[in-house]
Amino acid sequence: MTRPPTAAQRRIVDAADPVTGRLRGTEAQLTALVKRGLAFRHPRPPHDHFLTPAGHRLREAPEPRAETEPERAQGFAARVGGEESADAGPARAREVHSAWQGLLELRRMTNPDGATDRPCGWERTHLVRAAALALEAAGHPPEGPDIPGYRVRATPQPEAVAVYAPEGEPLRACAATLERAGWQTGEYTEPRTRTRYLLASPRRA
Predict the structure, then answer these.
(1) How far is CA 153 from CA 15, 119, 145, 162, 171, in A?
(2) Contacts for 105 with CB less than 8 Å, ≥ 6 apart
(3) Which candidate, 125, 149, 137, 124, places its Cα nearest to that of 181?
(4) pLDDT tens string 96-146
(5) 11 CB contacts (<8 Å, ≥6 apart)?
(6) Helix (H, G, I), strand (E, B) or coil at 119
(7) Ranges of each domain in the chain
């Protein structure tokens, strides 16, 4: 059985860039994470290290270490809609822009052909967050207290999320944004509530 990562290794994983998974540490620390299958060294210069899918799962898994939790970096989180409070000021706009640019760079580095107009592996394992980031980065407001906006929710279907928005133009605008970001969408109606929504999934080609 593979030994669990050390506390120092776990801190490096926790501190990885929340969008790209880029790691910072000594060469020895990063090499150890590669050996554990938690990181990989990118073949292109500057040969940075990034989390593998296993590394992302480790970072997102709950961990019983209350004494070190305050040390954990507070990373960026895309707003999926329904949050109780949502700062929409200039600082948030800068964070969203930076996260989106980081995601485009991750696409360039991890898609086999270097394409930035098509979702990458990280997005396929973080569907709700990836779709929400695409919407927020394009200027769509997430749903909040007394604020109409989009909501992104998981679905039972593989590689598909449901996107809700105010009826009419906002829903169509969300569809256009996601399609520009490399997603394919279809508009559907819930049988019981008659609520219109988008079913969106990352495009593969």
Answers:
(1) 26, 18, 18, 5, 14
(2) 20
(3) 137
(4) 998 999 899 999 888 988 899 999 998 999 999 999 999 999 999 999 887
(5) 68, 71
(6) coil
(7) 7-68, 90-202
144-196, pLDDT tens digit by residue? 887 889 999 999 888 999 999 987 789 999 999 999 999 999 999 988 888 99
Structure tokens at 136: 């927020």
pLDDT at 171: 93
